[in-house]
Recover the amino acids of this structure.
């Protein structure tokens, strides 16, 4: 099955190198993927416009350029799979405006709409490195929410599937999108695990990271930990108490930069609200939830309120619910009566999953 995929994301996502890497992973496995970068094509059609300034054009010319480029893509007969790198919305000096036309989206015959997301401080940094604009972290948070909603509406109108995909905290998460394109019938899993209240337990964190890696190898994994702004907020709260004006963050390349504490505190409600919304959407777009419950020092189960809500949401929405229960203390009926199956070890769970699903294509995880 050849896939036609539209990938959106707010300005500052830097989608081009990410999508080029996804296409290369596919080609390494002998499956051609053509990526059309709509922004690059618009600049090529308007050589008089300096780089980084195209959104300053009058809306009429901007729309004409975009329609011309999209018509050219519609007229192409690409070998293999097709990925279209574009946006759903723009929040710019003109205000908020759409970046697509329904008639062209319908003519494209899109199978999958993906909204790419990343840590907001990283998006904010890229945005200001690449453009002359005065946007706060709050502006970027609002824009991300608008981009997700507009992409989902596009998918509903066009009759295509919709997914939120994270670039990834440590490195670009190539495998998730690659598998969505090349292996769309593969099972989708949401790995669930405690986060904030095990942050000072390095051995437990190592267990959780090993579990996440195994799930990502076996399924199309929508990992909530790939976007982790809660840690940034907690560091900002500490910095505020110590009367510091900035906290240090890092780009995926490792380059450090400073983020104003005041701006982070201003988005505290947005961070919590979007975690709540986004994590439930990640569960909704999955076939199953796989929850890892570690044993904390003293023997208590590492069962956070967030994990409990995720398990209940998955159960109520008809998902398979798998729980890996490590504590010696037996799980409560609220776990056992809503779980499809409870495992005592990660190895036991992986053996069960391996018996159900074929091995993934190795080149997708390069």
């Amino acid at each position: 099955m050849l896939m036609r995929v539209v990938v959106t994301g707010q300005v500052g996502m830097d989608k081009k190198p990410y999508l080029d890497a996804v296409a290369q992973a596919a080609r390494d496995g002998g499956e051609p993927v053509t990526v059309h970068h709509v922004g690059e094509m618009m600049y090529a059609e308007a050589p008089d416009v300096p780089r980084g300034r195209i959104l300053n054009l009058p809306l009429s010319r901007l729309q004409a350029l975009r329609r011309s480029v999209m018509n050219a893509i519609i007229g192409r007969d690409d070998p293999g799979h097709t990925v279209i790198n574009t946006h759903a919305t723009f929040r710019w000096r003109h205000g908020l405006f759409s970046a697509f036309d329904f008639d062209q989206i319908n003519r494209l015959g899109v199978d999958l709409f993906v909204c790419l997301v990343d840590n907001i401080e990283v998006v904010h940094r890229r945005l200001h490195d690449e453009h002359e604009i005065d946007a706060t972290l709050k502006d970027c948070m609002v824009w991300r929410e608008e981009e997700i909603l507009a992409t989902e509406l596009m998918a509903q109108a066009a009759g295509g599937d919709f997914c939120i995909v994270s670039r990834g905290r440590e490195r670009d998460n190539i495998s998730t999108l690659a598998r969505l394109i090349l292996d769309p019938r593969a099972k989708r899993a949401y790995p669930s695990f405690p986060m904030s209240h095990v942050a000072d337990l390095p051995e437990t964190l190592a267990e959780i990271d090993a579990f996440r890696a195994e799930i990502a190898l076996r399924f199309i994994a929508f990992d909530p930990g790939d976007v982790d702004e809660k840690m940034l907020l907690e560091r900002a709260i500490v910095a505020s108490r110590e009367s510091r004006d900035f906290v240090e963050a890092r780009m995926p390349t490792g380059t450090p930069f400073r983020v104003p504490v005041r701006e982070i505190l201003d988005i505290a409600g947005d961070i919590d609200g979007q975690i709540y919304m986004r994590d439930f959407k990640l569960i909704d777009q999955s076939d199953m939830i796989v929850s890892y419950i570690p044993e904390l020092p003293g023997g208590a189960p590492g069962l956070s309120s967030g994990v409990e809500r995720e398990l209940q949401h998955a159960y109520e929405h008809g998902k398979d619910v798998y729980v890996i229960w490590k504590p010696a203390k037996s799980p409560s009926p609220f776990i056992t009566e809503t779980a499809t199956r409870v495992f005592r070890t990660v190895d036991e769970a992986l053996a069960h999953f391996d018996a159900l699903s074929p091995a993934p294509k190795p080149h997708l995880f390069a």
Notes: The domain at 1-185 is CATH 3.40.50.300 (Rossmann fold). The first strand starts at residue 4 and ends at 8.
